[in-house]
Amino acid sequence: MTLSRSNFYHRPKDRSQGEIQQEVDLRGKIEAICLEYPRYGYRRVSEQLKREGLQVNHKKVLRLMRKSYLLCRIRHRWVKTTDSKHHFPRYPNLIKGIVTTCLNQVWLSDITYIRIRTGFVYLTAILDAYSRKVIGYAVSTSLDTALTLEVLKMAIAKRQPDPGVIHHSDQGVQYASGEYVDELKRQGFLISMARTGNPYDNAIMESFFKTLKHEEVNICEYETYQDVINRLPYFLGEVYNHKRLHSALGYRPPDESEEVLLSQENNEIPRQTLLTLSVQS
Known about the structure:
Layout: H1 5-9, H2 17-36, H3 42-51, H4 58-67, E1 106-116, E2 119-128, E3 134-140, H5 145-159, E4 166-169, H6 173-176, H7 178-186, E5 190-193, H8 203-220, H9 225-240, H10 254-266, H11 271-280
Parallel strand pairs: 1-4, 4-5
Antiparallel strand pairs: 1-2, 2-3
């Protein structure tokens, strides 16, 4: 085997005990983050470290995570859960090309399944398109309009939006039914629907469900309906909304993203900014 001149003369760089200890400490922090968020990739781990006051190159984080076998493989799977064969009216896609600029401008809703030992349960959720925050959700063993209607009323009670919010969903019977559409019109929503069989028309919801499956459902392996009821509120409320960093939000959690927006409107300093400054000082 022929060695290049640079490799022939290369001598390993001696590292001080302090440098070795710093790397050990950094690896410990990375492992702690990966333990709390098992599906975080190296980019989100890097951003979380920054939020904790550590300025570290993402390439170094990648190297340490690879060395410690902390990198996870992403599994891609999409299952159709929409029944669009019905006689109810359909509505055009109002959010195509739209850029959200404020809260309660666009609400997104969809349904997904969660596998349990005896079959499936169904989750319906509504997200604010601007902050990606889950503002309403419900779980049921049946896939009907009552499930989606419950979530809609929950979101309305929580946010109390002004008329004119765009409600975007697929063309499934649960969203197109007379009962659901009547409630939307009664509350002053503008109705928007994705094209049949095209998940990319509601890409944010698809991304949310992928995160939910990848970072919670596939890890916890729910066995019963009660398991779902007991665990899911914690993940959605405490992890996804309050802690999980979103690349689309500048690596902020949805709760913080909304706080930043409201603080800017009131000319205040967000709480997380104050915490970060106190850590770095």
